[in-house]
Design goal:
Layout (H helix, E strand, L loop, with lengths): L2 H27 L1 E2 L1 H24 L7 H27 L3 E2 L2 H30 L1
Antiparallel strand pairs: 1-2
Helix pairs in contact: 1-2, 1-4, 2-3, 3-4
């Protein structure tokens, strides 16, 4: 496996941890705290970095089924992060969030996790042969 792909895989694992911390804390406390915002931001940066590494290292190119799922899940998390920043900008840190906002965040996160799992399965199946 190319070193750039190995780096991308390691970085996306860190993105999973960061997103998980953010969404768990947001869901638990129903507020957009500094911790939530920090881990969302770190997650986006790591996710974009991992995506770039994987595109550069991929032999198939950028437009595969998994690529499209990955890009759309990244877009969902980016949209969630932007909406979170808008909420904080309008109401300040530690602002309470609505159930609708929280459910949207969880949906974006769950879709991202599905993309993560499909990527892990593709790698596992490719190397099992």
């Amino acid at each position: 496996m190319k070193p750039i792909l190995t780096a991308g895989i390691s970085i996306v694992n860190l993105a999973l941890i960061s997103y998980s911390i953010a969404i768990y804390n947001q869901n638990k406390k129903r507020i957009l705290s500094r911790k939530v915002m920090t881990f969302l931001t770190i997650g986006i940066i790591l996710d974009i970095t991992a995506t770039v590494c994987m595109v550069i290292g991929s032999a198939e190119g950028a437009m595969t089924l998994h690529g499209i799922i990955g890009y759309s899940s990244l877009a969902g998390m980016l949209a969630d992060t932007i909406m979170s920043y808008r909420q904080v900008s309008a109401n300040g840190l530690n602002t309470a969030i609505t159930s609708r906002f929280n459910n949207g965040s969880k949906a974006a996160y769950l879709y991202w996790v599905i993309a993560y799992i499909t990527g892990a399965l593709i790698i596992a199946l490719r190397h099992a042969v």
